[in-house]
Structure formats: structure tokens, C-alpha cells
Amino acid sequence: xxxxxxxxxxxxxxxxxxxxxxxxxxxxxxxxxxxxxxxxxxxxxxxxxxxxxxxxxxxxxxxxxxxxxxxxxxxxxxxxxxxxxxxxxxxxxxxxxxxxxxxxxxxxxxxxxxxxxxxxxxxxxxxxxxxxxxxxxxxxxxxxxxxxxxxxxxxxxxxxxxxxxxxxxxxxxxxxxxxxxxxxxxxxxxxxxxxxxxxxxxxxxxxxxxxxxxxxxxxxxxxxxxxxxxxxxxxxx
Length: 237
Description:
The protein has 237 residues and is of the alpha/beta class. The chain contains 8 helices and 6 strands. α6 crosses α8.
């Protein structure tokens, strides 16, 4: 089934998120109370709301997107390239820019979005943050009224589940077991908050995000039985 898809109709993506404020005490009082209520189940009695706030970035109501990296295949004769770019900066603007990309280049029925764990995280997170900023949802993220087979999303983790709904596999583990060379990353997801707020190094986060987009594309190629991308085929644009 995956072989029937044209690679140049797919947009691979990954997002990086952080808590909306540098610290719990920087939140308005009402938002602090709402965070205390929202996080109560996850933190139980082990952490105070303030201690647990470093993890707020995983909830769209308490976090924000600091970059969206995308990658897409392009073909010229027998030459295949995978082009990677990143939207970053002020959140409302980067969301508008991402929406413009979808509306102008990935707006047809044949176009699909692909991310690792995207159906549980990336796609709904982007949609929620757009609505929070008053940005109308692009067609590819507006799922209201769509039947399951009409949803234009692919998820490499879901493809790996083969119907096993309780199975979670990280992108890094999936790449390892499929024999995909590991990118030379100098950080992991749990470090993004500190690198952003403490080190003020967005470029490092962008590099990490783009590597995950490439790895997601490599996983998809392996699931299709296609040749993996070489370094020469990957272009940053």
C-alpha cells in the first residue's frame, strides 16, 4: 500500500515545543491554578506544580511551538533529493508561514502530512496553537467531519504498530532496529526546554528538529522497502 504513494506528495514534519513561560512563577496566577489542576494526575504527590512545570511544553494549552521543520522529496529525472527547511521565530508568525506552505504547495487531496507520533502529538498540537492564536485551520489540519480514511495524515509510529494500539516506539529506537544510521545528535527531546530558555540556542534545536525530519523520512523509506537517502541527497533550503 505504501508503495502506491508518490513520495513527492508527502510532507514530513517535526515540531519542538517548550513551556510558554520560562518558569512557573512567570505565569499569571489563574494560569498557575489551571496548571496545578491539569498536571495533578501526572505528577501525583512526587512533584509540586512548580517542579513539574519544566514538562509543560507537551501540552498545547501550556506550551508553545518554537520551530516546525519540514522535509519533502523532489525528483528531476533519476535524481532524488530531500529538501529540509524550518519555520522558526515568533510562534504566531511561524504558524502562519507553515499554513501558507500547506495552502500553496500541499493543498490537494493527494498530499499527505507525515510525522512520527504525529497523530497523537504534532498534528493536534499545531492545530490547537493555531486556534489559540486565532489562525484558521488549513484544510490538512481541519479534521471535523472527515471519515478516518479521509484524514490526510501518516504516522510512522502508527504504521509500525500494525494494529497494536498499546505499543509505543520512539523514533530513535525504530531507526535503530530498522538499520538506519543514527544522525549525530548532540541533544535529545528532554533537553529542548533548557537549551531554549537557559542557553538561548535556537539554532541547536533547529538542527535537532531537522535531523528528526530526515530520520522520519528514512524510516518511511525503509517501511516501503526503498533505498535510504544518502548525505548527498539531503539538501537544506
